[in-house]
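Memo to structure team: turn this sequence into structure tokens by end of day. - J.P.
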Amino acid sequence: MDEKNNQGNNLDKENQKKVDESWKEQVEKEKHEPKREGFVPPEADFKFFITTLTLQASIALGHIANPSTGKTEKDPAQAKFLIDTLAMLQEKTKGNLTKEETDLLENLIYELRMAYLAKDEDKK
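Reply from structure team:
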């Protein structure tokens, strides 16, 4: 009976050792991987950047509810600042953008300017 106990103990130790080793391997692997907890931002991209500014301008114009409050808020000064920022980017990046980026920026600025003027007309 002692021999069976010894064999059982040896098997338990071997199994335990395998579990411990796999845990160590997993921890070591995780050390070298980038952490992916919570929000993982998208890759930096000019189109994403200008559409983010456009989204912020749309929120300031009252076209879209503010995601942090859930309320539609109008802030014409903020909207104008963001539209002017996009126009400045257009001027400063002239000749350095792809046709797709140039067209997107031009269209976004046009749409925002028209929306801004329409909001201004609504006040009168």
